[in-house]
Amino acid sequence: MDPTRIALLLVLSSALFAAAAAAINMGEGVVIGVLDDGIDAGHPSFSDEGMPPPPASWRGRCKHAGVAACNNKLVGAREFTRHLRRPAGRPAPGAGTHGTHASSIAAGTPVHLASGGETVSGVAPRAHLAFYQVCAARGCSRGPIMNAVEAALADGVDVLSMSLGDDGAAGFHEDPVVAATFSAVMKGVVVCAAAGNNGAAAGSSVANDAPWILTVGASSPQQSVAAFSSRGPSRNNGGVLKPDIVGPGVNILAAVPRSRRRGHGQSFAALSGTSMSAPYLSGVAALVKSAHPGWSPAAIKSAIMTTADTASVADEARGGGAQASYHAMGAGIVDAARAVDPGLVYDISPEEYFPYLCGLGYTDDQVNRIIFPAPAVTCAEMESTEARDLNTPSVMVALTADTPAVTVRRTVTNVGAARSVYRVEVSAPEGVSVSVTPGELRFDEMNQKASFTVTVERVPGGGALASKDLGAQVAWVSEEHVVRIPISISAARF
Prior knowledge:
Keywords: Hydrolase, Protease, Serine protease, Signal. Residues 389-489 form the Subtilisin-like protease fibronectin type-III domain. Belongs to the peptidase S8 family. By secondary structure, this protein is α/β, with parallel strands linked by helices. The protein has three domains: 3-340, 3-Layer(aba) Sandwich (Rossmann fold), CATH 3.40.50.200; 349-389, no CATH class; 392-494, Immunoglobulin-like. It contains ten helices and 25 strands. Helix 3 packs parallel to helix 4 (176-186) and helix 5 packs across helix 6. The longest helix has 18 residues, at 274-291. The relative contact order is 0.12. Residues 1-23 and 85-94 have low confidence and may be disordered.
């Protein structure tokens, strides 16, 4: 077998689980809801051998024409596309290659392949799956997506995995994924969604770009950003760095419907796309959620981003081994074992997004459509928040002749050792100065908060910036943790 076609999932049992099995419990007790085009429920990857029952809070059910019965692995299945006509010759509901593949990446049961001796496993093999069919032969429609998210929240999912999106939406209020997922975050559900497969094409952007979503690009086994992975900056979010993270998305070996065997002997196939990366990160989110069930979606997102690998990440779209920009890789390549123990997290309450949405210039009606069913807000009654001032684990600023310096404030929460000290380490490109105040953070207890400011400015007399797309980094370093955030610096306004 060509080694480039062996998915990273094959080595999870030896690399990831051996490193952190005691802490992560392989996702046990977490339900991942997958929105996609169908699932082969009888596939060995969805066997419930050795699986415990779903948590007592689970309220879902099995109501899908293509799913004969659920079990302790696939604990729910719902269909929202039966009203859509299916062209002759198309597979019956439930036979989706895309949905089967994505679901098994997130939380598939380990399956031994007799042909090559490998074991194919989902990222969180002890997590439960709930499947919601929202896509049919003609694509994915707003109505089914909205209805499925509402159903998933009522059922009690902990993580949503969405390998779908619209990078052409004119605004958040017109994007069904954005509008549907805010209610998920309000209920404490982590949302992982694909960044898209448009690569670095001129005029293209990243999908699923709301700041409350973990927007996932694709990395390759060569420690690089895949050429097809969509790049930022976002056209709609006002200056929040996207994508947030990149994860394995090239030649990922996972389940496909048994009626569509493509080799590997047991209905498994190697597929590529950010559609593979998003469920991978959904599995990672389940690992973190299992280890820290009380953490908010923003805290889990922060844990994943601040522990990512940024060292020598290349960009395949640029060629020649060129370093990937933050607009390509976000915070870096996911490191699942480190994500369960981040040391510090950057938390955000759902209510903090209200003044941010008002600051984007939306009308009261548009804001309230996005945040529904949260109580209605009136933008004139609150002070708006700029995108750069959200407490995200990333910073994005524009330096111009009129604005040669920008200062932002961030707050971290201690989730590591009760008594700990972090000292700042900064890296900055030539021509730019990055200063952090204070330079040291001391904590005496768990969940204690500390704030700091970051000032990014042009060096006086430093001449023109070498590029319009520069990167700096702030890292808080203790004896046990390194907590990094990327700083994307543009020479033009958004």
